Amino acid sequence: MKEAQLHSREKILFFNKEYIAEFVYGGIDGAITTFAVVAGAEGASLGISVVIILGIANLIADGFSMSVGNFFSTKAERDSFEKHRQVEYWEIENLREREVEEIREIYAAKGFKGELLEQVVDVITADKEVWVDTMMKEELEMVKGDKTPYKTAGATFISFILVGSVPLLSYFFAGEDLSVKDPQLFLYSCILTGVALAIVGSLKSIVNEKNIIWGILETTLLGGLAAFLAYFVGDLLENLFL
User: What does the DSSP 8-state code read for residue 45?
Assistant: First the structure.
């Protein structure tokens, strides 16, 4: 247990490793959706101020929505674990012989036999906590994670805001006249977003233990595809309605 806790507290850059997955997927979603908004606004030839307003609105709304979804997902997993754990306690108290036989069957299937099998059964069933933990892991294949709903939601929201704001950086420093369209700003946004997606893509590869180059290419290509579709739709809608 101590080894697992130490492993979960390892850090990549300045993030706890156990929450890197939330940071990565929050960051990818934030960068791609915000960049898609920027590309769509550019395709529709909207002014700088509109790009900033739409981008910030997307950051806050989608970031909050994603973090809330992550919160309830993590909470549901923990609640389900606790519910099944309480059921196992009840079964040990009220159906003891059946539960003892289940432990015996579990370890017999692992190759334990005779006196050794009975010793294992006696040791496990002598401690209610160990007994329940064994049933949760071996029978139900459920293990309680160390992640908390609040921390997973927080990591998702922070990464969504931080990485998702990158496509907007060039527009924040556009100058005084925010009503015009400046194609050069979109170019800068593309470059910055590509760099951000490459960094997050490399982190994704570390989390998934995959090839870093492939992770970078996959993430940036998906981001580029999303931006292309948004730009095309924006351009089409401008020609139809404006």
Answer: T
